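worker-03 picked up job from queue 'complexes'. Input manifest follows; two sequence lines, order preserved.
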Amino acid sequence: MVRSMLFIPGNNPAMLQNADVFGADAVIIDLEDAVSIQEKDAARILVKAYLESIDHPPMKIYIRINGLDTTDYEKDLQSVVTDQIDGIVLPKAKVCDVERLLTLLYKIESETHMQKIIGIIPIVESAKSVLEIEKLAALSRIQGMLLGAEDLSADMELMRTITGTEIEYPRARMAFACKAYKIDAIDTPFTDTSDNLGLIADCQKAQNLGLNAKAAIHPNQLETIHDVFSPSLQRIEWAKRVLKAAKKADDQGLGVFSLDGKMIDKPIIERATKIMESAKKYRLLPVEHA
Amino acid sequence: MLTGIAGTLESNDAMITVTPADKLTIEVKSVVDAFYHDQIVKVIKDTLFDSKIANISVMCQDKGALDYTIRARLLTAISRMEEQNG
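worker-03 finished. Artifact:
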């Protein structure tokens, strides 16, 4: 699971060469909206050369290809589907699009004798995609789903608002589907890169609805995203105490016990275990726990 | 005249211009020329060798690009020149 996915324009050498130092859990190298039509060829060649130059980067690498309704997507796939990437981010994805992409990936992987099985992250950015969220989540190779609120709001003929009321339903529906299929639920980017308080509030709304990650459009958004989508020190302390008390109760043969006057049973112990797993993964524990 | 151009003059990028020629000429202008001139020329020569191109004129205006960026911009410029040629 990831907390952050940072968009990197595919034709920007300065951003690409620093992709591994920004600290994102994953990057999405963009061949779609961030690249003008005249520069699609240059971006493909640059990204291919970049991928050939890297060796075990610390973050996951995804490529947002051009939509299947364009003439660019096949060239994108031919250039970037290699063992260096973790997956493809598919814009305007519906079930039929993901199925087409799966066929293309099987073909390329087989022809090039790849070691890796490339994952897929569909972008939910149309009303039809929202209605297909559960089916999308259940498809083979789906590693997560990314909400694209700008295009979705345009499709719904809604204004984007700072409160995000207009995207509560797709956020919640996506969160449930992703949780059910144990894949990443990735929130739409917050587009005002200078409004950190707005970003915090937006992240908290998404997290409260059950999403576990957020896309970023600027490296300066990563720290805030990580703060919100990582377990807080308070939660880690709580989880530690629950697990310690659970061990003691287990030694005494107790299935249910109380801590701070509250009943602790199996679901709460599982939640505490997950918090500790996340804390360990994101290196939030003191050295003796890591 | 056929010309292929790729890249920008932004930091960490290189703008490369190629034109057909009857011999190989490579001109490099770089912000790090004193340290990396020979390395840039080597990347250009290696890329041309891999592309099986012997005679061409290459002008590289480098703004501190890494090797893979120079290689990518050169390949794009060549591809664009060849596209003009039909």
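worker-03 released lock.
Chain A has twelve helices and ten strands.
The interface with chain B takes residues 13-14, 17, 41-42, 45-46, 48-50, 52-53 of chain A (CB under 8 Å).
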